[in-house]
Amino acid sequence: MGRLSILSQSQHAFKDRKEAGKILAQQLNGFKKSNPVVLGIPRGGLIVAKEVADFLCAQLDIVLSRKLGAPGNPELAIGAISEDGKLFLNEVLAAQLDTHNTYIQKEKEYQLAEIKRRTKLFRTVRPKVSLKQRTVIITDDGVATGATMQAATWAVRQEGADKVIVALPVGPQSTLTRLAEDTDQVICLKAPVLFSAVGQFYDCFDQTEDEEVINILKENFGKQS
Question: For residues 85-122, b (16+ Cβ closer than 10 Å) or e, as one string?
């Protein structure tokens, strides 16, 4: 199990994702020398990731992996598909839920179709960064169940990352503890005791559009070219 670092249990809200990213970046200063890749989970997570990447002078990319939802419970991840089509399956959990191969194959094909749609949209402006033997920092604007983030960590492992760090502005401690089991370290600014949704910890939690994601990717790619 990786190390879990929770800075506070504060209920105080962030102004917006940009502010959360700036504060989070300060806590990741120790990774500057490791030449990390910072991955944001689209869409809102990329705003947080941009602030982290700018502070660390790091490459920025997005996570296009998708979770495989359990039968009858799509929020429970039983596996993940990486962007290049590699499958990670939590075989113990899949067996416990008596998940049949036909269901897994169907779910895999469905999620691959969504990955292809996003690839067509985003990869024309930001070619995928190789994660092999790299320190990878995955971030989002927060987690609730953590299923999407868990799938991202599984997929990043499949892509050959050397170290996997999850960095978050906010999330419930139970979810953070579970994420630490599959990573080298989890760093979270706030783990409030009273937690119902990520949005409650932001004064401004507007929806992030695809165009904003594309513009952020273009800007960072220009810096790295």
Answer: eebbbbeeebeebebeeebbeebbeebeeebeebeeeb
133 vs 163: CA distance, rounded Å? 8
| Domains identified in the chain and CATH numbers | 3-64+129-224 (3.40.50.2020), 67-121 (3.30.1310.20)
Residue ranges in the chain assigned as alpha helix (H): 17-26, 44-56, 91-96, 101-122, 147-158, 173-180, 210-224
Tokens standing for residue 72: 């009858």
- Tell which wins on pLDDT, 82 or 184: 184
The reported pTM is 0.89
* Six-digit token string for 47: 């705003």
Nearest to 68 by CA among 43, 101, 41: 101
Phi, psi of 173 (to 5 degrees): -60, -35
Instruction: Determine the Cα–Cα distance for residues 92 and 112; give it in Å rounded to an integer.
Output: 23
SS3 of 6, please? strand
pLDDT, tens digit (0-9, with 9 covering 90-100), for 102-156: 999 999 999 999 999 989 999 999 999 999 999 999 999 999 988 889 989 988 9
Written as one letter, the residue type at 83 is: E
- State the chain's mean pLDDT as an integer: 92
Q: Which residues pair with 142 in a beta bridge?
A: none
Distances in Å between the Cα of 135 and the Cα atoms of 7, 34, 60, 152, 165 are 22, 7, 12, 14, 8
